[in-house]
Amino acid sequence: MPHVDTPQSVCRLGLARCDITPPVGIYHRMWGAATHERAAGVHRPLTATALVFQAHEGPPGPATEQVLIVVDLCLLWAPEMDALLAAVSGKTGIPVEQLLVTFSHTHAAGMMDRQRGHLPGGELIAPYLDRLADQVANIVQQARRSVQSVTIVYGTGRCSLAAHRDFWDEDNRQYVCGFNPQGKADDTVLAARITDAAGKTVATVVNYACHPTTLAWENTLISPDYPGAMCEVVEQATGAPCIFLQGASGDLGPREGFVGDPAVADRNGRQLGYTALAALEALPPPGRRFEYTGPVISGATLGTWSHAALDASQRKRKGHWRVRRWTVDLPYRPDLPKIEQTQAERTRWLAEEQAASRAGDALKARDCWAMVERMDRRLTRLGSLPRGATFLLPIVLLQIGDAFWLAVEAEHYQVLQLNLRERFAGVPIVVATLANGSRPSYLPTADAYGKGIYQETIAVLAPGCLEQLIDAISQQLAAWLSAT
After folding, report:
1. Which of 406, 438, 409 is nearest to 419 (CA)?
2. Helix (H, G, I), strand (E, B) or coil at 27
3. 82 contact partners, CB below 8 Å, separation of at least 6
């Protein structure tokens, strides 16, 4: 019988959510160009959502369970990330290897770095992070208690919110991080609807690649940026929580961004939300496929189609479960800066900032302070890197039925998802980056190196590492698909 299959997954899933909005007054100077220190208010609340995935059969354990925790923060540095994972594992009894924390990557949530406790509002960071660990552990336990049989149905849409952001400034003869009208940008929106045994929508997932950098240095409000309004649009229509997963957005950002107006972030979010809703509305009912049912004689001879239930064997295949957690050995770049060199550069920029301030040159002082901030972040990155010549990049790949869920640490250029989805056309691949942090920072394409592009200048891994990673993931996907 001619038919159209829609990719689906059958598993057990539990979900819980909580509010993790930081207190007003907390240290908020995420941007080097910012002149404020403390958050002046809240644009929209920040949330954390726990998703507990379990195989349809068998007791929960490392081979049959994966916990995904999605938080509305930019990211956590390695010490804070390790502490959060250890605390949640200790409070829940779930091994760290089963925990994945991903970030919406909003740049308007603040810099949650315990080393900034001496700065204005910094005294609120440590208590916030301690409370965050308790909150995340609680929702993981709630989600685990609420596990039920679900069907996940996948579809795609197209949204032009994301734009390429490696732009050559001809007048100043340099690359800047902004809107590149000639650059190509992945516009894929992967949307998933999760329904219970009665067919009720219990959650939706929107996977899209675009830096949440609508709001920048002029913004003084705590905000989830565009994912906030996106989730609101979808939740109002579906009556269920919407979870945003940040894709490979290393070279992607909003067409209109770097502003201080929250209304622009909301507009960007609604654009993505409406696209996600269109993709969700196009999905068939769970546990069904679209079949040709034959001709009907009318004014014309019509060909009719209808949704037919999957048989037992077809539905069983939708519950096929596999998970693999492994690392790929990637070399550090040969010109990786040294800590001593970075400390010297920081001292120089700090002296220039102080001199500019004394001279009343506010613009130069701001620019110099931005360079001090760059050096501080470089020192944090360098201090958290494992010793040796290579970095073991963690990968988690989960197959549930027709779909694959991929989680990788760090920020990757869009080619990661473009290449994988091109190689395995027709197979839903949910790509979640910044999984458990971003120790290596960016993974640009090999041809981006040596041009002075921001993402390349702060990358710690050598040219070609992204391509090597794509090949390693592709090999695993090919092996699993060939064995299905």
Report:
1. 406
2. strand
3. none
